[in-house]
Design goal:
It contains 8 helices and 26 strands. With 430 residues, it is of the alpha/beta class. It has 4 domains: 9-41 and 196-342, MoaB/Mog-like domain (Molybdenum Cofactor Biosythetic Enzyme, Chain A, 3-Layer(aba) Sandwich), CATH 3.40.980.10; 44-66 and 160-194, Molybdopterin biosynthesis moea protein, domain 2 (Alpha-Beta Complex), CATH 3.90.105.10; 71-156, Molybdopterin biosynthesis moea protein, domain 3 (Molybdopterin biosynthesis moeA protein, domain 3), CATH 2.170.190.11; 353-428, MoeA, C-terminal, domain IV (Beta-clip, Beta Barrel), CATH 2.40.340. A hairpin with a 2-residue loop joins strand 8 and strand 9 (141-144). Helix 2 (26-36) crosses helix 7 (324-342) and helix 5 runs parallel beside helix 6. The longest helix is centred in the last third of the chain and has 19 residues, at 324-342. It starts with 8 loop residues before the first helix and ends in a 5-residue tail after the last strand. The model has no long low-confidence stretch (mean pLDDT 92).
Length: 430
């Protein structure tokens, strides 16, 4: 990641109103991060079927009309709208048929119509289609009941979907299945996308063990790397899992240097809280420009943010808390959008549900809280949410049971039973 033109962390801090690293609101942390992170460089041309989930690097301009001609939106009969009787049935003579890709080529006089299939080109002079189920067939004539169709109905105009010269897809879009189909409708075999963001991650702590290692007394299996791997996979970035790094200065420095040399982003879990190994923070600071925050949020208060360098390469650093739930919450609240922006995407606000809390929720103003919840349909047709028991930041099971996060705003206080709250559904997170 080329950072030669990027502002210093001190310069960024000066632009964030009310910046206080010891009590930083979530909104200000997001503003800081948005100013910090650069976008990747490097564009690739990919075959259409390889581009799903990638970030579009340039606007795609349509060089054709879609559809290319006026066509039928229904199976039925194409006619002139002016032939429809004002106050009774309309009787028309059927003079031919038109199929998709093999349209009717003859002339159609007033009082005549053409049998037509969905997608077939509208014959010259005809502007209306009556669905076949609305008519009565009598030999070579059809009877159209009064009011069955209005002039101009059931006809798709040339360029109605996309006109020549229009922006079909804007740069910064994460390509979805519908986008791939639209590109195919334009005849595009390849599409320009930004290269994948490279993210290295590791966990720190002498108490951590990798799967397959014996679990010594006082030790726990490292779950954070697997959680991070899953969240990163859904963002479509290239990942480098560097395992567990013990609380050893030399091992930690080597890990940070390797990560910064091979990735655009380095994510760690553990080692940033008050009372944790001071040399972890010292190494972070020695290798770059790093700040240590206490964010006004729960869970996930401690966090390190900045840039680290080695061998002339720079990488953005996100030092996350060590507790499993705090890792997920800080990632979704602060890191996710940053990685999308660095990938060249244009992050959009995640959709929130409004749901009635089944039970009261205790909440102190002055911090943003993210509580695990289960959202279900309510009897009144809306949504309701119940908290998944204990909200301790080390209880990963409650995160697995939940299908969303109840987001309680910075200035919000206690929530009464039945009161509406914001819920971030997990299914909305790519």
């Amino acid at each position: 990641m080329n950072d030669k033109t990027l502002p210093t962390l001190e310069e960024i801090s000066s632009c964030v109103n009310g910046y206080d690293p010891n009590a930083l609101p979530v909104a200000q942390a997001r503003e800081f991060i948005a100013r910090l992170v650069p976008r990747v460089e490097g564009v690739e041309m990919l075959a259409l079927r390889s581009a799903l989930g990638r970030v579009l690097a340039r606007d795609v301009i349509s060089d054709i009309n879609v559809p290319s001609h006026d066509n039928s939106a229904m199976d039925g009969y194409a006619l002139r709208g002016t032939d429809l009787a004002a106050g009774g049935d309309t009787v028309l003579q059927v003079v031919g048929s038109g199929l998709a890709g093999d349209g009717y080529q003859g002339d159609v006089a007033p009082g005549q119509c053409v049998r037509i299939m969905t997608g077939a080109t509208m014959p010259a002079g005809l502007d209306t289609v009556v669905p076949q189920e609305f008519v009565k067939v009598d030999g070579d004539r059809v009877v159209i009941p009064a009011g069955a169709v209005k002039p101009g109905e059931n006809r798709r105009l040339a360029g109605e979907d996309l006109a020549r010269g229009d922006v079909a897809l804007a740069a910064g879009r994460v390509l979805r299945p519908a986008d791939i189909g639209m590109l195919a409708s334009l005849g595009r075999a390849e599409v320009p996308v930004w290269r994948r963001l490279r993210v290295a991650f590791f966990s720190t702590g002498n108490e951590l063990r990798s799967i397959g290692e014996p679990l010594d007394p006082g030790c726990v299996y490292d779950s954070n790397r697997y959680t991070l791997w899953g969240m990163l996979q859904r963002l479509g970035v290239d990942v480098l899992d560097m395992g567990v790094v013990r609380d050893d200065p030399q091992a930690l420095e080597a890990a940070f240097r390797e990560a910064a040399a091979n990735a655009d982003v380095v994510i760690t879990s553990g080692g940033v809280s008050v009372g944790e190994a001071d040399y972890t923070k010292a190494i972070m600071a020695r290798l770059g420009d790093v700040l240590f925050w206490r964010i006004a949020m729960r869970p996930g208060r401690p966090m390190a943010i900045g840039r680290i360098e080695t061998g002339g390469r720079g990488a953005i650093l996100f030092g996350l808390p060590g507790n499993p739930v705090a890792v997920m919450v800080t990632f979704y609240a602060l890191v996710r959008d940053a990685l999308l922006a660095m990938s060249g995407a244009t992050p959009a606000p995640l959709p929130m549900l409004r749901a009635a809390s089944v039970t009261p929720i205790r909440k102190k103003p002055g911090r943003t809280e993210y509580q695990r919840g289960i959202v279900t349909p309510a009897a009144d047709g809306g949504w309701e949410v119940r908290i998944t028991g204990s909200q301790g930041s080390g209880i990963l099971r409650s995160m697995s049971q939940a299908n969303g996060l109840v987001v309680l705003a910075h200035d919000q206080g206690n929530v009464a039973a039945g009161e509406l709250v914001d819920v971030l559904p997990f299914d909305g997170l790519i």
